[in-house]
Structure formats: C-alpha cells, structure tokens
Amino acid sequence: MVRNAAFFTPFRGWRHLDGVPYSERPPRISGVKSEGTLVMENVICKGLYCCVEKTSGADHVTIADSLFVDNYEAVKLDDQAVGGASLITRSVFFSNVRGAYAVCRYCHVDVDQCLFLQNDVGIYYSSYCYYFQVTRTTLAQNEQAVHRGRDVSYNDMLFYKNDVAFEYTGSALDNTTFLENSIGMKIVSKINWERDVALNRINFLGVGNEYHIHYTGTSLLDFDVSFAFWNATSVNEIEEHIYDARDGSGRGLVQILAAESMPQTPFRHGMYQADSCAGQCGQSWFNTKWSSLISAGTGSFSFFDTDRSLHSGQVLRDALLTGYAAPGGISLSSYMQDLTDLLGAVSNFQTVGTSPLPSTTASLAVKHDM
C-alpha cells in the first residue's frame, strides 16, 4: 500500500528528447514495480522515468486520487499473463510523455473519472487487450490524446483541443464529444464498421479545427452519420471537415451515408452537457493533499507567481492550499488554464529540507505490501 506519498526527482526533461544523446538524458529512476497487489491513493509522481509498472503475473492494481506529472511513462501496464485487474480512478496525468501506457495482452483495465492534460500521448495502447474500458474521462490539449484504440471501450468522454484526439483502429465509442481538436478521429486504414467498431451518440464540435475525420487509407470508407452530430445541414458541410483523397491524402475517399438521418442537436452526456458546462461542471480534479505533500519540505514555487489571480477569481496560492473552487459559469478554456496553473505550480515546486511550510500539514506514510 502507498498512501499520502510523493515520489519525485529534480529531472523534468523527459519530453521532446529526439536528437538528445542518451548521456545527456535524465536517469531512468522508477517508482513502484508491482508484482503483487498494489493500492496507491493520494500519491504524487514527478519527474520519474516510470512511476508505476505492473509486470507480468501481477495481481490487482488500484490507483486513486493521484497526480502524475513530468514523467516519461506515468503508469505502465505490461502484463502478458491472464489474471489481475487494474483500476485508475479520479487521477490526473499532466505533462507526461505517456500517461497510461498499456502493452499487455490479457490486461483487465478500467480508467474512470481521470484527466489527461498536456501530455505527449495521454493513453498509449499498443496491443490487443482482454478488457480495456475508459469512462467519464477528459483528454485535453495533448499532442495525441489516444494512440491506437483497438478493442477498447470508451463511454462518456470529452476530447478537447488535442492536436490529434483519437487514432482509430476499431473500438466502441459511446457518448463522446470531440471539441475543437485539430484532428478528431485519425483513421489510417479502411475499417469494417459492422465488425470492428461501434459508434453511438458522437458530437463533432468546434470552430477553427482542421478536420473531424482524417482518413489516409486507400479504399472507399463508408461513414454513417446518423450516429453523430456534426453541426451541419448538408453533406458538403460535413465533407469540409473530412480529410481524404479530395484533399490529397491518396486514393481513399470517405462516403457519407444516412445524411437525411443526421441528429439536429448535440447529444448530452456527463462530460458534455450545456455549453457552459462542457466537461468541467461537477469535476474536482485538483486535490489539495498534493499541495500538502509537496510542502513537506521547505522550498519555493520557482518562477511561479503564486499571488496572481486565477480565472476563478481565487489567488493561486489559496487555491493550492485550500482547494480550487470553479464558479458555475467559467468557460472550459478558462477552467483548463486554471488547472494548468495549479498543476504547473505543483510541478515547479522546488523542495529543500523537511520542515512543513506555514499553514500546511504534511501527511506522508508509505507502506509496501507486495
């Protein structure tokens, strides 16, 4: 068991290492390698090569209310044996190279009520999986939110302002909103829709995004638009948001079907409700215990001005120590900027010594039971 603990290093240079010699890269320091049952609650992992690694034959892994920031691989699930399950819930992945990284064949994985913000890749999935489900989760401002999605079930999802939201190779998507992404769904080869995928209640929204669908296959791809809201009134308008051979991709074209049955209003779901509550209402993705953990040593917030005001109207320092309180009318973009400021402050806190800061309480207890 690992509760109310922090694993951190001073190394924050894991992102964008292409061309950097290995001798100049940060050392490969890992946090917890699980070969048994692992429970992590209220934990910060910062600056590690791999924070949590579930290895082959490991039993149940539960991660809750935790923050993963500036790691190379935050959580790696590498399990080729039939058996244990993994649950990641109410946790935040911020500014990692890879957030949740699954290279397992027989994994049983649940990701629920999480936020993946400004990672190189939010969820990286590189194999067939026995069971992989992502629910009530937002992926925002990532370079690539989901890398490959085969045999994964996604329900009640929001993809917001990602460079590439979803690399699609066959999965179930229900109650999902793509909002202001540069590319919504990236499809690299023809899909057998009846066999490989299930799409239901999908919203493609946003002004100024490049393409909702980016298709680079070489065959004709039929796309039934009766399951998706496009905020469009004609096939021509839909095609303006689809990249295919008409735009120079190659030989493959996307053919629109069932345009007469297109929904006329966007679908509402937990992560996308009224326009003023697009994903942020009812969420509490900042945990004040994280501030207590980083404040277990005297230090400073580096170049962060903690006396500045957030969009919520709170002073950054107060929000760090007492909790973030977003007003009901705050926009999604302002909400995400506030979270970026809060998480960035936690990431940049430089710890020296072991004395608690004034007005904070340090809570640190680590127990391994594996």
Can you describe what's shown?
It is a single chain. The protein is mostly beta strands and 370 residues long. Helix content is 11%, strand content 37%. The protein has five helices and 28 strands. It has helices at residues 193-196, 235-239, 288-294, 316-322, 332-348; strands at residues 2-8, 30-34, 38-46, 50-54, 61-64, 67-69, 73-77, 85-89, 92-94, 98-102, 108-112, 115-117, 121-125, 131-140, 144-147, 153-160, 164-168, 172-179, 183-187, 198-205, 211-215, 221-224, 228-229, 242-243, 254-257, 298-300, 350-352, 365-366. A ten-stranded parallel beta sheet has the order 2-4-7-10-13-15-17-19-21-24, with no helix packed on it. An eight-stranded parallel beta barrel has the order 3-5-8-11-14-12-9-6. Helix 3 (288-294) packs across helix 4 (316-322). The longest helix has 17 residues, at 332-348. The chain starts with a strand and ends with a strand.
